[in-house]
Amino acid sequence: MGNELNRRSFLNAAVSAAGLVAMGPLLSACGSGPAQRAGVGSEAALKAVLPAYVPNTSIKPDIPSVLGGPDVMTNPGFLSYPANRVATVSGVPGRGGKYSAVTPLWGTIPPADNAFYSAMNKALGVQLEMKPADGNTYNTIIPTMTASKRLPDWIQLPAWWNSQMNVGGLVGNQLADLTPHLSGDNIKKYPNLAAIPTSAWRTGAWGEKLYGIPSFATGFQIAGTLYYRRDLFDAKGITADQVKSADDLMRLGKELTDAKSGVWAFDDVYRYLYTSFGAPLKWRVDNGKLVHLFETEEFYAALDWNNRLAAAGYVHPDALAGDNANGNTRFYGGKTLISSGGTGAWNLADLQSGRAADPNYRRGAFNVIAADGKSTPRVYMGAGADIMSYLNINLKPEQIEECLAVANYLAAPFGSAEFTMVNFGVEGTHFTTVDGVPTATEAGKKEVQAQTYPFLAAPAAATNSPGAPQVTKDYLAWQAANVKALAKPVFWNMNISMPQAQATADAAQQVEDAIKDCIHGKKTVASVKDAVASWKTSGGGDKLIQWTNDNVLQKHGTGQ
Amino acid sequence: MTTATPTRPDRAARPVRLNWRVRLRRDRSLILMTLPAVVLLLVFNYVPLFGLVTAFQEYDPLAGIWYSTWAGLDQFQRLFGDALFWNAVQNTLYLSFVQLVLFFPVPIALALLLNSVLSQRVRNFIQSVVYLPHFFSWVLAITIFQQMLGGAGALNHFLRNNDIGTWDVMTNPDTFALLVSAQVIWKEAGWGIIVFLAALAAVNTDLYEAAAADGAGRWRRLWHITLPGLRGVIVLMLVLRLGNALTVGFEQFLIQRDAVGYDTADVLDTFSFYYGIATGDYSYGAAAGLFKSVISLLLIWGANKLAHAFGEDGLYRR
After folding, report:
1. At what angle do helices A397-410 and A115-124 cross, to 10 degrees?
2. Per the confidence metrics, is the pTM higher than 0.80?
3. What does the alpha-carbon distance between residue B9 and residue B32 come to, in Å, rounded to a whole number?
4. CB nearest to B151's CB, from A35, A320, A534
5. Can you tell me whether residue B214 is helix, strand or coil?
6. CB of A517 within 8 A of CB of B257?
7. How does it sit in the membrane (chain B) (predicted)?
8. pLDDT one-digit tens code per residue, A3-25
9. CATH architecture of A225-380+508-556
10. pLDDT value at position B13?
């Protein structure tokens, strides 16, 4: 199997975990500096500039997408790597320009000036100087670059850090407006970019203008879900599809927990379960009035259930001690049987890690439930893409066009000749095809990183797990079974720039702390209510609700 | 100044002060050698002090220090009205006090004990073993504690399998201070003995021989020779410790914050992190940090005064 795919898979897991915090509307803080801020744009004006969507049909997936509601569909799936690698770009896209690019990388940084970079430069027709930086500290590197106004020509700014990196303040000041090049039919000049779904372009739009170039766009973006050990459930004769309510889950907790053998039914599940109780992702509109999550009864019902789950002893003690880092280890080792996480966790790398601990390992996910077992099951959608790259405002229009032509190459669809080059390198040097699966050579493992070029631009997500098609089948079967449950939250896919005071209130650190203590059984629901009461008054919560109502809801609607 | 300073009658005569040019010529190689260290100190310790100005601003990283709005003492007003802040101050002082009482004597006792071991080989072995935990990161140290004493750890696994009930060590807020002190002792006590061992090595062994000849037993020698020999170092360490009273550690509390809850584990440093940096409220975090620095400065100044009052050297000789 392709090693690069593993690394990307790992990344997707990391991305999903980190992205969780930023799900729903993308909030960006901004202070009162001299820079002008791009706020939320008017819906009609934005619609007028969004790029046209021209799906690519040259490579047929083995499992086609299933449509849900508007902007919702399952990922297409590939059970094997296409043997006929079609070329989608004729000639070289570049004209010899020289550019620098900075991207985050969760893994080993490849050596500079390596053979893969040279081959890519040749294929792209530009001198693209790649400077991957450590993903774990990326959010602290970028603010220093922006403060000194020294951004590279092309930069990746993951959307879940929009607030911390103040992207809302950077667009139009340090990042280039791509609207003239990409709006409407203009994008047809770049057919592979035109094949990226509209909702992903919307994530990169600020104040009625297009700025970001999305990677890995998907029509099935959710924060995450509840997983279970399918192999162990099967062995016990438990059918996960029978779980229809929170009470069913509680009963499973009793049935599966065997503390004496060191097995607990649950790891932390609150973050991916609270909306099942009918609570909003963050905002809800009740009879025209904007209501925050912390003001809803359903939120407290969810807390109460999780509090009881912990008190009953069905949650692993290490999870209660706040150790989330080893959650996967517990799950792989069979110490917990039900866990939760981003959907990026379900892939080939997961299968390999799980099999290393238990040869029968198989991941399964519960269908989306409604806690009461009666209401319509619902899970809220995230933004159309998390990985977003931007061009420097100092580039001349012809340079921007050259970069976009390069982006078009990078966004070639799964299985195409260009995709193979970008993700696997040169055949013979960086990979060889073994049983139809591109397999990395030693040079490939060292030089080709799936998190470098694809972070500048990449096609819409296509699920694949070369060599282990069952993972793709399981995951897409689950997507198809739940695609109708996806719903747009209030302010879906809207980029909102808010002043610092509101951004701080939005982070609601004191309430988040109280929530953790409550779901770990250390504090009561009443203590969260106290924390919320103090958040509303002295923590700026009431002002945040007022501000959001006046500046977002009243001006721009719910975005649903 | 070219004239020699008058010597005080009650002190030994001071050397004549030379012209600065002469002194410069004389000491130039020494000065050159310290220059890199001074530059490092300036660049990494003194220049960043200007960042403190953000505590008086509504700091916006995009606008930068020069263009951020001036807020005067607003951040401090908010800070002093914040119950969570005072909770963090209280935790810091409490934890610091518990650690002072429980941790501070341990390296001294350990050094004395080690000093009494005659076999050099055994001494070296023990020394290496007790040093080792210092080189572990806090993540590792706490993981070891969790594996041993946690709810799913070795101890509770044993208790559970023998139906003795379980003992909640790692997530009990009431005994958290004892837990963190135990962790600090396990991790740092071995490292802490170095300076005391050095001081012990400096004690004149003739004194022991003379005392032994006069019939002084082991305890009398400890009381009348060893401890007085160590006194200067102990006071110095105590002064430094008091100056650092508000710095009880960061990672140790960051990692265990979720285990016992924020109201038990939040110290000033984690407060700055969670309520300042993590939420993008940099100025607020800077204000909390500045408050801590000012109090620390007062503490170290006071402790040093106290040391001088008792006739000890403290941080420097008067």
Report:
1. 120
2. yes
3. 36
4. A320
5. coil
6. no
7. Multi-pass membrane protein
8. 333 333 333 333 333 333 333 33
9. 3-Layer(aba) Sandwich (3.40)
10. 54
Both B191 and B248 in a single domain?
yes
In chain B, the largest separation of any two C-alpha atoms, in whole Å, equals 85
| Residues A529, A493 contacting (CB under 8 angstroms) | no
Alpha-helical (H) ranges within chain B are 20-41, 74-80, 83-103, 105-116, 120-131, 138-149, 154-161, 176-201, 205-213, 218-221, 227-243, 251-260, 262-265, 268-272, 282-309
> Is residue B140 located within the same domain as residue B234?
yes
Judged by phi (left if over 0) then psi (alpha if -120 to 50, else beta), residue B81 lies in: alpha
Mean pLDDT of A542-548: 95
What residues contact residue A434 under an 8 Å CB cut-off, 6+ apart?
none
In chain A, CATH 3.40.190.10 covers 37-219+383-487, 225-380+508-556
Instruction: Residue count of chain A, please give it.
Output: 560
Q: Closest residue of B to A504, CA-based?
A: B279
- What residues of B are in contact with residue A500 (Cβ under 8 Å)? 58, 60, 280-281
For residue A1, pLDDT beyond 50: no
- Which structural domain, as residue segments, surrounds residue B240? 76-309
Query: In the predicted model, is pLDDT for residue A342 greater than 80?
Result: yes
Residue A39 has a pLDDT of 54
Q: How far apart, in whole angstroms, are the C-alpha atoms of residue B81 and residue A511?
A: 18
Whether domain A37-219+383-487 has CATH 3.40.50.11220: the reply is no
Contacting residues of A for B256, CB less than 8 Å apart: 321-322
* Domain harbouring B280, CATH code: 1.10.3720.10
Tell me if residue B103 falls in helix, strand or coil: helix
Helices and strands in chain A, H and E counts: 24, 21
Work out the angle between the directed axes of helices B176-201 and B120-131 (0-180°, nearest 10).
140
**Cα A256 → chain centroid:** 31
A490 close to A280: Cβ distance less than 8 angstroms: yes
pLDDT one-digit tens code per residue, A108-148: 889 988 999 999 999 999 999 999 998 878 887 887 788 77
Q: Are B266 and B84 in contact (CB under 8 A)?
A: yes
Cβ–Cβ gap B61/A147 under 8 Å: yes
- List chain B residues with pLDDT less than 70: 1-16, 318
For residue A142, which of A160, A176, A161, A165 has the smallest C-alpha distance?
Answer: A165
- State which amino acid sits at residue A5: L
- Does residue B54 share a domain with residue B105? no
The answer to whether position B317 is within a domain reads no
Domain identity same for B181 and B93: yes
Work out whether strand A486-487 and strand A463-464 pair parallel, antiparallel, or are unpaired: unpaired
Q: Measure the CA–CA gap between A506 and A500, rounded to whole angstroms.
A: 10
Q: At what angle do helices B251-260 and B138-149 cross, to 10 degrees?
A: 30
- Residues paired with A433 in a beta bridge: A438
Q: Which helix (H) or strand (E) holds A147?
A: helix A138-147
CB pairs under 8 A between A and B: 112
A-chain residues near B67 (CB < 8 A): 33-34
Determine which of A142, A164, A315, A517 to mutate to test the interface with B (most B C-beta atoms within 10 Å).
Answer: A517
From the list A325, A299, A288, A355, the residue with the least C-alpha distance to A553 is: A288
B:27-86 residues touching chain A, CB 8 A cutoff: 58-64, 67-69, 81-84
Q: Is A296:A286 a contact under the CB 8 Å cutoff?
A: no
Contacts of A533 (CB under 8 A, 6+ apart): none
Phi, psi (deg, nearest 5) at residue B214: -80, 0
> Cβ of B281 under 8 Å from any chain A Cβ?
yes
Residue B1 has a CB neighbour count (10 Å cut-off) of 8
Give CA–CA dist A408/A258, Å, rounded: 54
Position A21 scores a pLDDT of 35
A286: helix, strand or coil: strand
Please tell me whether residue A385 adopts helix, strand or coil conformation. Answer: coil
